[in-house]
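[audit] Reproducing an earlier prediction to check determinism. Same input, same settings, fresh worker. If the tokens differ from the archived copy the diff job will pick it up downstream; this log only records the rerun itself.
[audit] input (387 residues):
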Amino acid sequence: MKVPLLDLKPQYRALKAGIDAAIEAVSESQHFILGPAVRQLEADVAAYTGTQFGVGVSSGTDALLVALMVLDIGPGDEVITSPYTFFATAGTIARAGARPVYCDIDPATFNLSPAAVERFIARDCEVQGGRLVNRRTKGTIKALMPVHLYGQVADMDPLVAIARKHKLRVIEDAAQAIGAADAQGRRACAFGDIGCLSFFPTKNLGAFGDAGMCVTNDAALAERLRIFRVHGGEPKYYHAFIGGNFRLDELQAAVLNVKLPHLDAWTAGRQRNAAYYDAAFAKAALGAQVAPPVAMAGARHIYNQYVIRVARRDALRAHLASRDIGTEIYYPVPLHLQKCFAYLGHAAGDFPESERAAAETLALPIFPELETAQLQHVVDSIAGFYA
């Protein structure tokens, strides 16, 4: 039995007629840049995330980058974030000319630990002239960039409280978390100054290529985002700012408009599959070898990934591959140990929870179209490996 990590073909086949019609409508209109499909998607995604304004951009990575740019974060500034995340989180901070500052994760959720952030500020920072300054680097801590990893909202109340206390901007990296919510029903992207989404094809809401969006409740920030995504020009050919070509493609927006109404049903399918895994692993009594993901009580986990902690991870992955089961390791090298960030001066052991997660975690197939027999095959194969 084959169990791929992800198979997008069933989703496409179910929506083919609507998607083909949407693409044809754009082709007939010959309106390819920032047209009605983009405007519709911006309004609908903003409403879905509980925010007021959506600004479509070219990718999730560019969403993070333009968010940093419109908040005037650049050389001499520092942004606190997690070392256990996709590269774009810290990569965009560096591309903006700022310095990534890492704090460790909560081992249960894999998200940025508020306690770790508080420890860093108390130990390494001081207030100078109303600015929070890193004593070691002399840089100004300007923002906090929590990541809602794997589809679960970070512990935002204490993080937002820290940001307010120290006058930091909050950029939410919600690339994996559209529709995720905390126990109060507040959705990812609705806590900070700007929320950043990715519509990469493998995401729960995926385009037919790269696409992304920034959402915000601040009308002035929304307007700056719109200006910065077209090279900082407003009106056209008049540039008060240096922006970039960060526009969301009209064809991608048309595809996403067809898909968005189905997102909650797909999320329910992922949640159903996650519940099956949880029960099956419990029944298999693999507690000493396999730790399923922890979903926070009352929260809405959308399971962009179903990530387990396991003993002998690499050997298990090879065993599953031999049984035609797809898996992935997110992420084998935490960001503080990446070669390109050697200039930050970190060493192994600096962020032990992130390093442990990088060594122990494995993502299993979770997409909504999986059949029960496939899920059970995954669990049986894991149980067989440890037996």
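[audit] rerun output stored. Observation attached for the diff report: Residues 309 and 360 are 5 Å apart (CA to CA).
[audit] end
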